[in-house]
Fold this protein.
Amino acid sequence: MTLDNAVMRFAGVIVLASALAAHFLNPAWIWLTVFAGANMLQASFTGFCPAAMVFKALGAKPGSTFR
């Protein structure tokens, strides 16, 4: 799995899990969805992604987006 795939999968899991938690548990969980979206937006402009740094440290193969 490449770094790009790992980051996109992680973001998808966070968004889906927080949306489900907001629906079934407490509406305040929607803020995690907002945070994930804001982080993805800023990463698209800056190229800085904390999740990419973690996955890189865990040994994910380099991709073409996050270096």
